[in-house]
Design brief:
Blueprint: H1 6-22, E1 29-34, E2 37-42, H2 45-48, H3 55-67, E3 76-81, H4 85-93, E4 98-103, E5 124-126, H5 131-149
Parallel strand pairs: 3-4, 4-5
Antiparallel strand pairs: 1-2, 1-3
């Protein structure tokens, strides 16, 4: 179920994705909201030369450090693009309560795994929040990449 504040926080995640875009990173942004705490992050795979530096992982690490905990059971994570399997695993390990994403990721998106995943922790998923904006940003990024490489 999409809540009233979902669009607001997704706009913050889109701002993070735009930062990634401007840094020549795949434009994915993530925002974690836990109580009054808001944590923002974006992809840094290229600049850090680290395949694990996805927006979601960066946000989870920052949130855990800021809140002084290893789990975020009352948190919602807003992600511009559907999380991959690695990020979904981190979301489950952090016990994040709710995942809200913008555009579906046809190749690497993994939220369908939750349908068959057996765990004592259930994650609520809301899809398609500001989907067009998130999708358009990704398409523009990869279009520019292809033009540069030709």
């Amino acid at each position: 179920m999409i809540k009233d504040l979902d669009k607001h926080y997704m706009r913050l995640a889109l701002n993070e994705a735009k930062k990634a875009y401007n840094e020549d990173e795949v434009p994915i942004g993530a925002v974690i909201v836990s109580g009054e705490t808001i944590i923002k992050a974006h992809n840094t795979k290229e600049s850090k030369k680290d395949a694990t530096c996805h927006a979601e992982i960066n946000a989870i690490k920052k949130a855990c450090k800021k809140l002084g905990t290893k789990i975020l059971p009352d948190a919602t994570i807003y992600i511009t693009i559907e999380p991959c399997l690695m990020c979904l695993g981190a979301i489950l390990q952090a016990r994040i309560k709710r995942v809200v994403y913008g555009a579906k990721e046809e190749k690497f998106g993994a939220t369908s795994v939750l349908e068959s995943y057996k765990s004592n922790h259930e994650v609520e998923v809301a899809r398609g929040v500001l989907e067009k904006e998130a999708s358009d940003l990704m398409k523009q990024f990869f279009k520019e990449k292809r033009l540069k490489n030709n």
